[in-house]
Amino acid sequence: AGAVDDVRFWNVARTVDEIAAARDTTPAAATTGLVANWRFDATTGDLVTDAIGGRDGRVLPITSGLVLGQI
Fold it and tell me: I want to staple 33 with a disulfide (CB 3.0 to 4.6 A). Which of 5, 12, 13, 67 is the partner?
């Protein structure tokens, strides 16, 4: 099993090379096209803070193969 360390949502198309180059970096909040960035840095609790701001949420256990929702 794996773990999710960082999830980013963009409103611009990114190339494979751009994604690979930024994989192990922490982008600045003002990075063009970055609209959400959850870092999953907390070691306790279920709160996930959006580093860009405004889209905080909670991590819930997945109990089925189907996940529905919206941002």
Answer: 12
Give the number of other Cβ atoms within 10 Å of residue 37's Cβ.
Answer: 21
Whether 51 and 25 have beta carbons less than 8 Å apart is answered as: no
The pLDDT value given to residue 18? 94
Which among 69, 9, 71 has a CA at the least distance from the CA of 37?
9
Over its C-alpha atoms, the chain yields an Rg (Å, rounded) of 13
CA 64 to chain centre: 21
String of DSSP letters for the chain: ------EEEESS---HHHHHHHTTS---TT-TTEEEEE----SSSSEE-BSSSS--EE-----SS------
Phi, psi of 17 (to 5 degrees): -65, -40
